[in-house]
Structure formats: C-alpha cells, structure tokens
Amino acid sequence: MYKKTVLFLFTVFFFSGILSAQNAQELSFGYPVSSTLRVGSEIWYNIRPPQTGFAKIETTGSTDTYMEVYDERQNLLIDDDDGGEGVNASLVVYLSAGRTYLIKVKGAVIGAAGPFSISANYISSPQITELRFGLARAGELSPGGSLWYSVKTTEKCILVVETTGDNFDAYMDAYDGDYAWIRGDDDGGSRNNARIELDAEAGQTFYFKVRSYDSGSGPFGIIANTEAFVEDQKNTERSGAVALRMGEEFPVSIRMPRESRWYSFEITRANTNFVIQTRGNMDTLLYLYDSNGNLLAQDDDSAILYNALISATLNPGTYYIEIKYVHLTTGRCTILAGIR
C-alpha cells in the first residue's frame, strides 16, 4: 500500500508539472486575475493579443514573484524578478495580434508563497532616443520608469552598450529590430551599471531599455561602442573542441541560445590538481568530462559574480570542458585553465 501511494503521488506531481503549460489559465487584456502561489509551485497563463503592440504584464500584491513570457512554442521571450512595485514582477513585451503567448509565475525565492494578482495592459509605444557610437548620452530616470534607446550598426562587429553613473542600480534589456527580447543585464558594467555585448551584422537595429533594478531614480549616462568581430571557432560540438593552453586566457563567444562551446586539454602526470574558471559578466555553466564523455564535475556560480569554477584532481588522459550560459543568453566571456 505504501509503494502504491508513493507511486500515485509521484505520478500526480510529475504529470501536473508537465501539463501545467497546457492547462494554462486564460488572461485577457484589462482584466486582472487573482491567484495563490503554493511553495515550490508555478502558475501558467495564456494570452492572445487582439492587436499588435507593447504590453505591460505585471503582478501585484505582497508575494515575491518571478515571471517568464514564452511564445506558443515555449521559447523564452523575456523574464523579470523585481521590475514592478516592491517584490512584484513587471515587464514590457512586444506582442503580435492573433498569436498565443504563455506566462509563467512562480516564487522568486525559496519558500515564496501567497496571493497575488496578474494583469496585462497595452501601453503606448515608447519614445526612443538614438545612440551614436562613441557619444555618451545623459538620461534621467524617474521612480519606476524606463527609457528606451536604439542603435544601428554600420559594419559587422561586437556591439557594446553600457550605462554609467552611481545614482541607482541600472538594469538594461536588449531587443532586436522586431522588439524580440535578446537578453538582460544587471551588474555587468562597473559598480552597479549594466553592460551588454552583442554580435551584430552591418545594418542591424537594436533597442535597449534602461530601468532601475530596485526602483531607484536619478541621472545616468549611456554609451554605445563597437569592437572587432571575432570569427567563430566552430567548437560547438565535442568533436570540434579547441585545445586549451594552461595559464592562457581564451575568449569565448556564445552566439545562439542553448549553444555550447567545447575545449580539450591533456594531463600527463598522476594526481594533477587542475582548476578552470570563467571570467566576465555572463552567468556561466562549466562541465568537465573524461575522454569517454563521462561527466566528472560541473559548476554554476563558484567564481566571482556569476562565473563558474571547477577544481579537480586528475590522472593522465584527455579531458573536455563544455561551457554554456544560463537563461538562454548570448554574449562573451573568457576561460582560464591552470595546474596547481
């Protein structure tokens, strides 16, 4: 009887997790929906915009919420933690008429639970200020507000956009020319500033939205620059792994969401103390494999900021490193391996 009960509970919880998106509640523009989060649970909604435009989707209440928006194929479009009032989630997303979108709400921290409301409303198209390369622009952010900027590239390059100042904790979102969200950044720049790097082709337009991570306000600066484009190393599979040299910092460029970059190295002495870490402003994941593809170690945030670090004692042989980014993002970092 005990085994049957456990199997039944496992089946209920397992399939309820799989079917949660399919059983999403309907959310209509202008009509808030009240719900209650249980500890460790998530609630899904679906929304079908009657017209194309910018929509503001937000939660209200005292529950610390985290929100994600997906297209009909469940590709993540944008996410947010504390973009709303207090601990509420709030985001602006460009939606197309007639398409179905999915919204997932869960607790932002372990143990978060309680009642909340969620609503979706159209907002007017934002006023967008054009950035010119190398010329800093000054902005003034009001409490709870945001400012939009655009950049158009003239050549194939790495586009770098960053905020400056120390009046508030800046958060920046990057969008492509169709207002599809690319990635966001909190503290990738100096102090509490945001910095985003993107691979760009000539003639591409990008949009950037600047807000405060913690509802702060005040003046800030923003500037766009370009750096030379680095050709792809073609090491997205283990068979194309690039050989690492100990003590040499290697540039890593993730150009597609879910993409991996692979590296290899040789150990020639028994009981070698090996360490590898990433550096930069990206949230990285590191995996260490032996020559047969067996996973030996993995890490997320053991290094500074959101960087990954693996330390292991290894015997002679060939080993492989896989690096990828969290949250389906793209961008650049570096990787450094050494022997102690």
How is this structure best described in words?
By secondary structure, the chain is mainly beta. It folds into three domains: 2-122, Jelly Rolls; 128-227, Sandwich (Jelly Rolls); 238-339, Jelly Rolls (Sandwich), CATH 2.60.120.380. Helix content is 5%, strand content 50%. The protein is built from one helix and 27 strands. The chain has one helix spanning 2-19; strands at residues 25-26, 33-37, 42-47, 53-60, 65-70, 76-80, 90-95, 101-107, 114-122, 128-130, 137-141, 146-152, 157-164, 170-175, 181-185, 195-200, 205-212, 218-227, 242-243, 249-254, 261-267, 272-279, 284-289, 295-299, 309-314, 317-325, 331-339. The strands form six sheets. It has a five-stranded mixed β-sheet, with no helix packed on it. A hairpin with a 5-residue loop joins strand 5 and strand 6. The longest helix is centred in the first third of the chain and has 18 residues, at 2-19. Mean pLDDT is 88; it is low at 1-19.
Give the total of beta strands.
Answer: 27
**Rough outline:** globular
Helix content: under 10%
Q: Can you tell me the CATH topology of the largest domain?
A: Jelly Rolls
Strand content: over 45%
Q: Helix-strand pattern, N to C?
A: HEEEEEEEEEEEEEEEEEEEEEEEEEEE
Tally of distinct domains: 3
Radius of gyration: 22 Å
Secondary-structure content class: mainly beta
CATH architectural label of the largest domain: Sandwich
Average pLDDT metric: 88
The number of distinct helices, counting runs of at least 4 residues, comes to 1
Report the uncertain regions.
1-19
Name of the level-1 CATH class of the largest domain: Mainly Beta
Major β-sheet, in short? 5 strands, mixed
Instruction: Give the neighbour order of strands across the main sheet.
Output: 1-3-8-5-6
User: Alpha-carbon distance between the termini?
Assistant: 55 Å
